[in-house]
Amino acid sequence: MAGYCDLAPDHPFHGPYHDREYGFPIDGDNALFERLILEINQAGLSWLTVLKKRDAFKVAFDDFSIARVAAYGDSERQRLLNDAGIIRNRLKIDATIHNAKVIQTLQNEHGSFKAWLDNNHPLTLDGWVRLFKRTFRFTGPEIVNEFLMSTGYLPGAHSDDCPIQTHVLATCPPWATIRGNT
Q1: Residues contributing to the annotated binding site for Zn(2+)
Q2: Which of 17, 54, 92, 168 has its C-alpha lying 20 to 30 A from 46's C-alpha?
Q3: What is the CATH number of the domain that holds 136?
Q4: For the segment 68-86, what is each residue's pLDDT rounded down to a tens digit?
């Protein structure tokens, strides 16, 4: 079975994501929130479906503003459930709003969502899954693994022979720094 590094090059959606985002560390909390929400929405669907709907998600969720999404009420929830441009799954929409509120709490307690991630790093995947399940909604092992790989907290986003791996390593992702791999 071919891996993402084999399938993504030259693909109109997978290619740019693979080459410029996947596995690279993210500093901004709203960008981390976006990645978490996209991973949650991918559950049960293809990543291509999510990438194709990414712009619609960005509009629907106010540019992934944690503060705005955390303030959503019933009217915004209904608007999202009626938005054909996004994945209209009540559990995923409710998790997004809930998780925005959780991230606000983490920001208050740790200074930022990223600081919370950094403070808990390094953990094994099992440790991360337990932490995410205690902290967030709709975050099972696959979602947690992909979120952490895609943001540089866990290895595995790229194969060692993928040319993008060199670029990822040059950014000193947390997984590589802890292991002394950079």
Answers
A1: 5, 18
A2: 168
A3: 1.10.340.30
A4: 999 999 999 999 999 999 9
Tokens of 35: 């990645």
Residue 125 located in a structural domain: yes
Residues annotated in a binding site: 5, 18
Q: Give the DSSP letter of residue 63.
A: G
Q: How many domains does the chain have?
A: 1
pLDDT in tens, 115-156: 999 999 999 999 999 999 999 999 999 999 999 999 999 999
Closest CA to 156 of 5, 49, 31, 38: 5
Q: Which domain holds residue 120?
A: 26-151
